[in-house]
Write a structure and sequence with these properties.
alpha/beta; Rossmann fold; globular; 171 residues; five-stranded parallel β-sheet
Length: 171
């Protein structure tokens, strides 16, 4: 790390976030911005095992900053799985177990559950905004459009808000 460079972050990530970055070929931003990224077993299973040959699988397997971590509180995961997918549920429990306050997740229900548990959430759009603010990307409009073209769900309001914050709004 260069002198004066802001400290890299530690976070937990859900599968859709990781896949989203790979869909737009921006995986390298994780390596530039994240010191350690914890992933739960269900996330690894979804991206690397079942997703073999798809965006994210090779990147996750080769990333030195990713740490797979088993979940201890299986009961908490089961409770969250009533309204969340396995990956989201395990990611939220893992964040609490490793005392990590930041979760990279895009699913709205998972974001709300994380925030109710006192965790901070950042999705792909917010992550790209942070990368632009750090000077790692010049613009994000084309990246958000590319995600939408790949059927990655981003609400119109979210895209407009992020583009406005990035100084790229059309209005």
């Amino acid at each position: 790390m260069a002198i004066g460079e802001p400290e890299k972050i530690v976070a937990v990530a859900d599968a859709s976030f990781l896949i989203g970055l790979c869909l737009i070929s921006k995986w390298e931003l994780l390596a530039q911005m994240v010191e350690r990224l914890y992933v739960a077993p269900a996330v690894w299973e979804e991206v690397v095992v079942r997703g073999q040959g798809r965006p994210g699988a090779r990147e996750m397997e080769q990333a030195g900053f990713i740490e797979r971590r088993a979940i201890k509180d299986k009961q908490a995961v089961k409770m969250l799985q009533v309204f969340l997918g396995s990956g989201e549920a395990e990611s939220l429990v893992l964040a609490q177990e490793v005392r990590c306050s930041l979760v990279f997740v895009d699913d709205l229900k998972a974001r709300k559950a994380a925030q109710e548990a006192g965790l901070k959430t950042v999705g792909v759009a917010g992550f790209l905004l942070a990368a632009k603010q750090k000077g790692l990307v010049r613009e994000i409009r084309s990246l958000l459009e590319a995600l939408q073209q790949q059927d990655f769900r981003l609400s119109r309001v979210l895209v407009e808000t992020v583009l406005r914050e990035a100084g790229e709004s059309s209005s």
